[in-house]
Amino acid sequence: MQPLLPYLLGKEHPAGLRLVDSQTCLRAQDIEDVGDNRHTTFFEMLGNWSMGDYFKEQQIRWFFEFLTDVAGVDPEKIYVTCFIGDEAQGIPRDTEAAEIWQKVFQEKGLTADIAEIGSAKDGDARGIKPGERIFYYDDGENWWSRGGGLDKTPIGDPCGPDSEVFYDFGPEHHADGFGLAHPASDSGQFMEIGNQVFMQYRRLEDGSFEPLEKKNVDFGGGLERIAAAANKNPDVYKISLLWPIIEKLQDLSGKKYESHTESMRVIADHLRGATFLAVDGAVPANKEQGYVMRRLLRRAIRFAFDLGIEQNFLEQIVPVIADLYVEDYPEVKAKREEVLAVLVKEEKVFRQTLRKGLSQMQKFSENFTRHMAFPLNL
Fold first, then answer.
1. Helices 336-373 + 314-325 axis angle, to 10
2. Domain boundaries, the chain
3. What tens digit of pLDDT does each residue of 77-123 get?
4. Selection from 304, 305, 341 nearest residue 322 by Cα
5. pTM of the predicted model, to two decimals?
6. In the beta sheet, which residues pair with residue 39?
């Protein structure tokens, strides 16, 4: 959304008041989280934008319609959150969004009681009561700005409450140690599949907030997570854009996904991310995008050792990834051989470094064992 800031503040966009996009994204800050059933560094983000045109009523209804009538997501499994408001900052509770949600759920014949939670920690202690489907959270969960919460909103920036949408995979996926289940918990039961940001304020020099003359919508939804919800399976790695990579890893290693889940997830995600970085022209390096790319590749190769894959394998995996995207991304097809060459070259260089390091470790181990067998008399 960074390039859209002037237009969100009122400048006329050359493409009009309504925009829609699907873009590949990479979040390196999530790299250590990859290995569970939902985190990926690389993902496809579906987005739509209203710059002073439609607002909460249309956005909420259209997204709900897309999820339930187009993507086939079970409406009974959908739960949503809204902003609880902040009296000290002069920001009211977003009752408008909550009431719209209540109406669309009721039109599907679903009970949709509204609950006041507060912080995510409050949710851990309170949990969910029967009939509740709409939840008010504080600015730690349901306020959007480029800086984070209300106090971190940059001066002059557009900002506003958001309404997040979650899919409930059932209490059997609620992990121990997270308190009681609720949408904003990271326990595994609920997965966020979309976020509707209602940019209706701007922060002033004195730190206060004023309403924008033209209100905006910024929606983002993860394609992989929406697909997982449509499949009724919390494992995003079992969707059709990731599972073929896992199947190839099973073939190459002779290992099963069920017994080497984390390693296969890390490899599939990291190689997909590195492939698209190469498509965009990045090459492995020690800074900026090249560093991220190198780190992804080397982590993937390191996790391959857990599968018993100690020889070059990118030449067999990268074509599988490319085949998944050639229809939707022409640049993948155009740069296929160039991308493969870049990634395979980096793998060979890193494996040579690994072999040298392992050789030195072996010598160190042998010397240590020999000295222990004949200790000095002190």
1. 150
2. 2-235, 240-363
3. 999 999 999 999 999 999 999 999 999 999 999 999 999 999 999 99
4. 341
5. 0.91
6. none
